[in-house]
Structure formats: structure tokens, C-alpha cells
Amino acid sequence: MAVREVLRAHIAAQGNAGVETPGEGGHAASSADQAATIAAGRASQELGIRRAEFELAVHLGLIAVVGAPGGGRPRVHEAEIARLREQPGFPDALVERVRTVGTAQGAALLDIAPARFTRLVRAGCVSPVTFYLNRYRAVVWLYLADELAAFAAREPELLAGRTPPGMRTMLESGVDRRARNWRSQRIDRLLDRTTDPWARTAVQASALDPVQLAEVMDDPYERAYLVRVRPEPVFGRPGSMAAREAMAELMLADDPDEILWRRVNLTLELDAAREDRPAPRPGDDGEALTAPHARPARTARTGARPRPVHQAPAAELATPTPTPTPPARSGAPRPAAMGRTTGRGLLARLGWRGRGAG
């Protein structure tokens, strides 16, 4: 603590004297940024919120964190703490934004029966933000109270009266979108935290089991590279073995149409990653290949990086959407490493031929 204060006072004195060159000023600011950070545990204490609330706020992007030197635990700038403290209604407003509720509390918040609440979330009207395991090791989904309130204001007709026919048909067929929507939001938030093409590819690949992944990526060195560069949530995986096993199971897409969309998104990100740099192989210069290239964004040629393909929310569907059937192929498919693929070539690389609806 004393060292940090000395560094801060020294940098402030230099800044007040105005004797730094522009280059030196930038370096000093960087040193100040490193010095003026605090650990996550202390940050939650200074904000007056519980550790679980703090971690959820980071996950939602409400609190900015920085990586510690050497890959340590994330830290928070003191300036970020000051920014949050200056917001209106602090800290109650921040706590309310990360408040989560289960089925019973959520139903009470919407003033509906728990059974109706369960039907709504199964249909995908509201997405869970996290989960925990109860004493029977069953998954208990939690929802943001803010999102429930927004849903009630947006779709009041779904809180009373008869269930819409399309939604009723879905529910009667056994549809449950909770895990799927949780996966989608988690993947989107991880994608928002990285611009490295291979890391983005790894995020998309995390929703496919090893067999599905190998059908899209037949190169074992590329698959091994994904394991090395895959970003994780800021505060890692759940601590208990049971929770880690539940997380691993919930991360995998299970419906045929979701698997297809995940394979499409993976293929698009993989094309961008291969254009950026090849995956390292034995004997390669590891430093040259494993680090992201320091170069301008590739917007001149493509306009933007590939965007994930999203489907409409389940609640908006009047009838179940059939799985797309690929057209018949003629001739051999292009090798996986050749350029971007469209149309028939993309479907060939997805390995979806002959799967039909499942």
C-alpha cells in the first residue's frame, strides 16, 4: 500500500511539474494505471456489494476490470471505483441491476403463478443469467430481476389469459430454451471481450462436443490450438466438481438446429482466423504464430469481422422451425483451409449431409 502511494505521489508531482515529453508521459500514465488498481475482493468491499454480486456485475459488463501482469486475477482501477460511486443511487442502483431471482421470486415479481413463469422461461421469453446446483445436484436457474421487469412491460399480454397457440405447441412438444439461451448469452459476452480471431473461434467451438468439432475442424493442430487460446469468464469456472460437470454439460448445444447454427458460426470465425494466421504446428516459431498479429483491422477487404448468426427468440415463433436441409452436392468439396466458403461448400464443410432433421 505504501509503495503504491509513493508511486502515485511521484507521478502526480511529475505531471504537475509539466516536464515530461509526450512519450514519457504515456509511459508514466501506463505505470500509474498499473499502480492504481486493487484486487477484486477489495473492490467489492469498497463498492459495498457482495462478492457474487461483484462477479456478476463484471460478467454483465457493468464493472470494467483489467488483467493483472503475468496472468493473475483480474484487478479494478481505482478510477473505475470512483466512477461507480458517482453514479446516481449508488450502491443500491448497482445492486438492483445484478439482483437475481429464482422461479418462486420471479413469479411473485411478475404477479403470476410459478407454473406460468416456468412455461414462459421454457419458451425462451426470458433468459437465465446464471445457475446453481441444489442439494440434489439439480440445476436451478436464476434470472435478472431487471430483465423480468422489462419483459413484463414489453409483453404484458403473456402474463394473463391463454398461452399463444405457437408457444403452447412448442411447450407441448417438450421444448425448453433455458439452457440454450444461457449458452447463447454466455458466448456473446465472451465474444465481446476478445477481437483475436482464434480466440473467437475457440468460443464458438466451446458449444460443440469433440465429435461435432472434429467434423468441422479436421486439423488436430487447430483443435489443440483452440484449447490454448480459449477465453474463459473473468472469474473462471465454478469451484465444486459437481458445478464444473454441470457447466460442461450445459455448454454443449443439444438440439439439431442449434448444433447447425453453432457449426455455421464456427465455420465463419474459423475462416477469419485462418486468414489472420495459421495455427502453430510442431517445429513452428511459436512466438510468431501464437501471438495475435499487430496489424490494422481487416476492414478494407471484408468490411467487418464475421458476425455470429442469431435465431429469433423462441417466444416469437408461431410454429417450430424445421431444420434446414442442405442441397445435394456434386463433386468434391473444397479443402477446409481454402478461403471463405459459401453456399454448397459451407454445407459440405459443416458435415451436415444426410443428417436430415436430426
Automatic annotation (TrEMBL):
Return any one Pfam family short name: DUF6397
Q: Where is the signal peptide?
A: none
- Which branch of life, at top level? Bacteria
Biased amino acid composition, Basic and acidic residues: 273-284
InterPro entries on file: DUF6397 (IPR045652)
Residue ranges the record marks as coiled coil: none
Name the segments for region: Disordered.
Answer: 273-358
Q: Where is the composition biased (Low complexity)?
A: 290-320, 328-351
Name of this protein = DUF6397 family protein
Source organism per UniProt:
Streptomyces sindenensis
